[in-house]
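Input sequence (247 aa), recorded before submission:
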Amino acid sequence: MSTVDERAVVRRRLLVALTPRATRAQAAIAILFALLGFALALQVRSTEESDSLSTARESDLVRILDDLTARTDRLSAEQRDLQVTKDRLASGDDSSTTALQEAQRRAQTLGILAGTVPAQGPGVVLTVTDPTGKVDAATVLDVVEELRDAGAEAVQIGDVRVVAQTAFLDGAPGTMVVDGQTLRAPYTVTAIGDSHTLAAALRIPGGVVESLRNLGGDGVIDERTAVRVTALRPASTPQYAHPAASP
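Predicted structure, token format:
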């Protein structure tokens, strides 16, 4: 073998010897590092999203907590009243009078929910202005739904009592049609409930008041210790539904 050939062989052997070889252990370590990096990336992303969510919805969480607290208090009071009524009926002392009083109380409660009787109590009066004529019926419906979610027990818009079946339709600019009655801006929304909770629900960032301002309108909230909802709906008789017989 010539000297040139020997040198070429030596170079190839050195090249092979110096070339790094991936062993199984090295491959396993590389995979572990890759998985660790992926996990860290997910953790960072999850932490960022969690922090962002916490910061963005702090006011919402406060409102929800207030709402849940108010609802819990109402349910606890109702539970106590029902227990007292049950005890009075079970005792047999003047049960007919107690039953009549309970029936009357329930009739009043159902009348408030159905809009067939007037109501009064603490609450808010919201005045919705619409100088640009861009506040539509859907936005006002959002106002009502926000109030309902915050615990409003009776709602009135203008001279129209708002119940579950109330329909909101767009009218000419600066107007809307509620249950067939045309209302013109500014719209006055009266709601009975915990005034602080209702006002806080309307003022939350990104809520209905901000939506009104984005449309060129505004919502002025007046918290009151006593408001009256006097608009009434005629009592209707179900056409298809009838009391079901006991099983």
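Checked by second reader. The domain at 57-232 is CATH 3.30.70.1880 (Alpha-Beta Plaits).
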